[in-house]
Design a protein that fits this description.
Elements (H helix, E strand, L loop, with lengths): L4 E6 L3 H16 L3 E2 L8 E6 L4 H20 L4 E6 L5 H7 L5 E3 L4 H11 L16 E8 L10 H5 L3 E2 L2 H13 L4 E6 L15 H8 L7 E5 L8 H9 L6 E3 L7 H7 L5 H14 L4 E8 L6 H14 L3 E6 L17 H24 L5 E10 L2 E5 L5 E4 L9 E9 L4 E8 L5
Parallel strand pairs: 1-2, 1-3, 3-4, 4-5, 6-8, 8-9, 10-11, 11-12, 15-17
Antiparallel strand pairs: 6-7, 13-14, 13-16, 14-15, 16-17
Helix pairs in contact: 1-4, 7-8, 11-12
Bound molecules: S-adenosylmethionine, iron/sulfur cluster and FE3-S4 cluster.
Length: about 425
């Protein structure tokens, strides 16, 4: 019998990447083989994002293109999961050829539906597959903040933390299957545990995960500046496996805009947080997110953001032009920064950041960095430093899943290139 085939299309943030990887793994354990042509698939999954209008347009475009596929193969099972899914009844009216709409992260619901639909019994499961070297582990779903531009909290619901025991068991299992690095995920990862009995925090969870044998590195993202506690900073500073890299979105460098975004901190508080982080964690790398062209953002207010980026010098800046999203508080404000002006501000931030990142990375040339090798890309080995810099090197040996030292020879704004120095023996 020919194997069953699945098609997976996924966009959005790391949370979606994590959910898609889980869905793919479960399907493969059930014997499915992935295909890139939707018309060949027995099961199709679209994992969707609507963070900006452009993402939603992509989802709707892709969904429209699958109508013909479903017409030719009505027996194929088409499921749509993720932040696009709001009111399933309305969506069913708009897209009657979709078999099932699932809330974000409802991978279990998806797999259950596939089993029922394909009449696959529980006994169909293969032995566990090897895990990638670096894996995402969602630890908290949803978000309790009220950022006025944000649709994520509306689509993903209130904060729900997974119990520590469940997370530990999952990390142990992933390590047994070959994972060496875990990235703990949450929209607001540093508020982990507030909704659990006894209120265990992220620092406590990091301490629990840290002793797991065979696990070499721990990361987490995304952190909210107002929730980053001294305990968490201390945990990153003192636990050797926790990497010195934080993703901590500032969104704007202007107090009035921050207030209208309801971010819950001022520029001065953010600056002070960065100072404390840099003092406690030498060599820490910092990533941030910025929105330009929020309703009412003046040139001067934009320049406050620009100057803050110049001052702090982040390693990475994800910049986006404001996009009004249905149901959000900001969508009731007039979207008065013209598109060309948003584009201009976006470009200014991109150019500034390219320069800053090039300068920071140039400082690594000639130095040796520790790299966990994740695999091969275009004939070269690649992996990341503890500070999350992407590193490429060429070598005839097999370094998959190994920790190595690489001497940096060339640095660009987005990646480094170097040569292998030696393997690192990691103490368990
Ligand atoms: N919880 C995280 C946080 O607080 O930053 C991530 C939220 S969202 C998945 C990722 C980024 O998308 C945000 O940091 C923000 O910069 C951007 N974003 C969210 N809503 C947006 C909007 N309406 N327009 C433009 N960018 C937006
Ligand atoms: Fe959205 Fe703000 Fe929550 Fe991030 S912290 S998911 S931007 S509401
Ligand atoms: Fe997109 Fe939802 Fe993530 S809107 S960015 S997939 S939380």
């Amino acid at each position: 019998m020919a194997p069953l085939k699945y098609y997976l299309w996924s966009i959005g943030c790391q949370m979606n990447d994590a959910d898609s990887a889980r869905a793919a793994e479960a399907l493969e354990q059930m014997g499915f083989v992935r295909v890139s042509a939707p018309q060949e698939a027995d099961v199709l999954l679209l994992n969707t994002c609507v963070v900006r209008q452009s993402a939603e347009d992509k989802v709707r475009g892709h969904l429209a293109s699958l109508k013909a596929v479903k017409r030719r193969r009505p027996d194929a099972f088409l499921a749509v999961m993720g932040c696009f899914v709001d009111d399933a009844r309305t969506l069913h009216e708009q897209y009657p050829y979709v078999d099932l709409f699932l809330r974000p992260s409802d991978v279990e619901g998806f797999i259950r539906a596939v089993r029922e639909r394909m009449a696959l019994g529980e006994g169909w499961v293969r032995p566990p597959l090897p895990a990638p070297v670096s894996v995402y582990v969602p630890i908290v779903y949803g978000c309790d903040h009220f950022c006025t531009y944000c649709i994520v909290r509306l689509r993903r619901g209130k904060q729900r933390s997974r119990p520590p025991e469940e997370i530990i068991a999952e990390v142990e299992e992933l390590v047994r299957r070959g994972a060496r690095e875990v990235t703990l995920l949450g929209q607001n990862v540093d508020s982990y545990g507030r909704d659990l009995p006894g209120k265990p925090d992220l620092a406590y969870l990091l301490e629990l995960i840290h002793p797991i044998k065979g696990l070499w590195r721990i990361r987490f993202l995304t952190s909210h500046p107002a929730d980053m506690s001294p305990r968490i900073i201390e945990a990153v500073a003192s636990l050797p496996k926790v990497c010195e890299h934080l993703e901590i979105p500032v969104q704007s460098g202007d107090d009035i805009i921050l207030k209208r975004m309801v971010r819950g901190y001022t520029v001065a508080q953010y600056r002070e947080l960065v100072r404390r982080i840099r003092e406690a964690i030498p060599g820490v790398s910092l990533a941030t997110d910025v929105i330009v062209g929020f309703p009412g953002e003046t040139e001067e207010q934009f320049m406050n953001t620009y100057r803050l980026l110049e001052e702090i010098r982040f390693d990475v800046v994800h910049v986006a032009a404001y996009s009004p999203r249905p149901g959000t508080a900001a969508s009731r404000l007039r979207d008065d920064v013209p598109p060309e002006e948003k584009k201009r501000r976006l470009k200014l931030v991109e150019e500034l950041q390219e320069k800053i990142a090039s300068e920071i990375n140039a400082g690594l040339v000639g130095k040796e960095v520790e790299v966990l090798v994740e695999g091969r890309r275009k004939g070269r080995w690649f992996g990341r430093t503890r500070t999350n810099k992407l590193v490429f090197f060429e070598d005839p040996g097999n370094w998959d899943g190994q920790m190595v030292m690489v001497k940096v020879e060339e640095a660009g704004p987005w990646s480094l290139r170097g040569s292998l120095v030696r393997k690192v023996e990691v103490e368990e």
